[in-house]
What does this fold into?
Amino acid sequence: MAAALLAPAAGLRWRPALDELVLLDVATGRSWLLDPAGAAIWHAVLATGSAAAALDRLPGADPREVEDFVDGLVAAGMLVAGRPGG
Amino acid sequence: MGDRERLVRAVGDAIDRLGTPDALGGHGLDLTGAWRAHAAGDPVPDELRRSARNAALVELAADEVLDRARSAVRQPLVVLKGPELAAHYPEGLHRPFWDLDLLVADAPGAAADLVAAGFTAGATDEDYAHHHHLPPLSAPGLPVPVEVHRTLGAQTWARVPPTVDLLARAVPSATGRDDLLALDPVDHAVFVANHAWRSAPLGRLGHLVDVQVLRIAARERHPDADLRLRAAARAWRLGRVWSLTVAAIEGELLGSRPLDPRLWPFRSRLRHTNDHSLPTRRGEFLYAALARPLTARFGPLGRSVRGPGATGRSPSSDGPPNRPA
It folds into this structure.
């Protein structure tokens, strides 16, 4: 069985604002702003599906900080466990 | 150099000349200024960074609101101004907007469809009974209201084509969504030029950019676009508004010909000022006198220069003076 990968929650949309990232949950109207480092983690997780795999795309990043940040995204409901391509 | 490259360069020069975030915001060029500074690796002032954040949030919400509106409304939707104009902006230029304006054949029917889909109207003291659009409707939680237009707003002396005619010659939307329509760029350009005249006459470079991107789009669609644009403006009785707007674009924004002497009194306003409020009473008279066709000035409507159509400012509908619609 394939491992569950992290994916954006349904209804979540995002768009760059210079080097930051604006996210909007269209179901609730909640919005978030990720700073440049957070935006880089977001894109890396989307590309790889997990905090651990994302580290390959984040040279010099502190693994613990990345993991904590991704945990925060999951806790906020912005990332959910999904499947590859799901 | 092509039309788009010339425009991008001209706007860049204007941004360099204006300099401050306040001035850029007043001219509707703050978003382009933010992205331009970012692309150059320059520090981005906080005000411009906020503009970029707000624009991103509005664009995200607008996509969703358009999805819901398209699903709900059972008739063709023509997108006016905002996102349609933004889609025409060439790479390197960015156009903020704050609401969605939709033109439809049956406005009450479209509004009823939106309400049935969960859109709600906010409290308002304005009287929209005879207005060119219905009260704004909002989707819960999404900060982009929708205005359903029964016709295009214009001065009392203008002769706006019937909505059914505008819809008949509508074209696919430049937003890339195949379920939305837009005005033919000729119609859109004349409408936007007049809308700019109604909200901040000769006061905001961003308005001139709006008209210029639609002139470019019109030229790409119609080999005889310049003739069509002049003819359409005359048919709408907005020939003077159009000729002054083109003169401002070419004489001030692009610098491709000397500034029309009629515009000399407004040069400072176009170049430097941060005062983009509505004209004063005396200024309002001057703008109206410049824009009105002679037949309107000396005909029965000519006596009501101070009437509601003099600058055509409508009930709160066109957004704050410093904001592009």
Summary: The domain at 3-297 of chain B is CATH 3.30.460.40 (Beta Polymerase; domain 2). The first helix of chain B runs from residue 3 to 18. The radius of gyration of chain B is 19 Å. Chain B has a mean pLDDT of 85.
